[in-house]
């Protein structure tokens, strides 16, 4: 994941490069970050002293000359708590700086009052810290909602929150620095740092589930937008003549392709409540009325992704979320719409469907804490 030209300090740039790419020689770091050899040596020296970075044995010699030692982030140099909040459960993972999960749990969220959620986060942190035998160096929290300055939840409808200074509350309760972000953007950053989006620039992540969202990573940074609302694509029109969403937008992505939109359409067609798993099961998936609903949802998502690709031309687009199974089952309808929106001279754009797991979203939140760690620790 390129980091040159970012606002990060040189030490932060080196750390992020080593997290994203794995062990690198000083020469490789210099080329990747546009730093001269003396600058690399100067920047790396305090990282080595801190214990965050260590030298690794050289690769096996493949030719003449002195073997080159590589630099790598030390796995045990720090630990980070990632939390993904849903309306009824808290998903938490403890990771090292490279995203390896050390411990995890997913307790129910029995009360959504901010004070109760903060108390549960503190309790979970203490349990995971004891289990892993590691103190927590930072906390990242992701949730479906609007977040300002990585600390203030402006609105999270599913929790009933408005103007909740979540990062400050959690830091006060735990003593650890905390950063908060929209869940899709956090997931996109984690995929760019640790996952399929590594070294892909630009990189895009589209999630389809209870909501519809998009995260865009350019030059190693998630694009937040002028007021933190970049990627809010759920109400874009994608199906002419389609049903209206809960706020009256006819044929928008949320109305047609979200899990609630799909369930509503299936209920209307079948005359009873039908969940997504049942609709994709062997008993219903081949019924014409079910196929129509699912294919329309897959095609609508294709319109959304195809439009994104036309505007951004990502090196890779990942599609995930609870509704990804619908796209997998009707990939031809999805691909047809993506292809229809592609410029005749443009090459086909790589698209990967990623299985959905809530703990991966929690790992995405932990990546926020890793990012803050690289940026705020004094590496001089």
From TrEMBL:
Protein species of origin: Actinomyces howellii
Signal peptide positions on this chain: none
Domain HTH marR-type: residue ranges: 13-58
InterPro entries: ATPase_NBD (IPR043129), HTH_MarR-typ (IPR000835), ROK (IPR000600), ROK_cs (IPR049874), WH-like_DNA-bd_sf (IPR036388), WH_DNA-bd_sf (IPR036390)
Family: Belongs to the ROK (NagC/XylR) family.
Name this protein carries in UniProt: Making large colonies protein
